[in-house]
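haha ok so turns out i had the wrong file open the whole time. this is the CORRECT one, sorry everyone. sequence first:
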Amino acid sequence: MSAAPAWPHVLIPDAVLALPDGAAAPPWPELPALRALARQLRLAERLTLDEDSPATPFEVALARAHGLPDTPGRTPWAAFESGTSGTPCAWLLPCHWQMGMNDVSVLHPGELGLDERESRALLASVEPLLRDDGLTLRYLRPDAWLVQGELLRGLSCWSLRRALTRPVTRQQLAQAPTEAQRRTLRRLQSEWQMLLYTHPVNEAREGARRWPVNALWIGGAGELPQAIAPRADVQVCRELLDLPARLSLHDWQRAWQAIDANALAPLLQTVRGGAPARLTLCGPRRALTLSSAQGLTQKIMSQISPLRLSNLRDQL
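then structure:
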């Protein structure tokens, strides 16, 4: 797909606080830069995903911003983020599954708290299982290993971030295009789960009353014919993205205020200086992209009928 215009583009994931079904989302705190931007910008794009989408609106919006394939579940995040090209690859993410009768819930990675020593020890035990099926495994960081090989070609994967928002069935975890791939992946998943069950790292973690690593999540699968560099004009505000699983309303509001001061105030200066800019707000259902008003008519309309923050928040 074509790349987005080379404008400063700020993306804000988790722009509304996730609450139990039926609960009203709390209002944003006082955000002077965002309020001023709403008066200057116009709604340019509304992205809406189905409830059973394997990706979040933020992930699809980010894929589009970087010019990556944006079909939910088919964005080659592992290839993009690791700079890998010419071979199918995926992330293998150590995690803790909480099993229901018919579905799987995933513990927030922040609650798992895996360190490098533990992660490397687990990887060393899992690597021979994958090698036998033509897969190579490489440590990237404690919560992410890079796996490469033909077995991963054509996979469609639920993102781990999507799984944090709702349980998924085993059949939805990683879907392969051929029966041979599906059989091999099922066998591998069973083998590494049995290995993890009695692994010394997990025995030590359980002895210390910490969550064990009882599963590996396959995500971000795909192939890039050539490496794609991240766009320098795309900025992701991580203050809300990296919040812990359990937080207070005060912590969430402080994170929003940091975004307003550190990312949105400079973006506002760009807009006031006459340069084009884009802002994408992402929620659990939708992503809304606002852009600088282009043309005299649009600029007049942005002043006559400015966007309202409450309406934007309710649409996410």
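The chain has a mean pLDDT of 90.
again sry for the mixup
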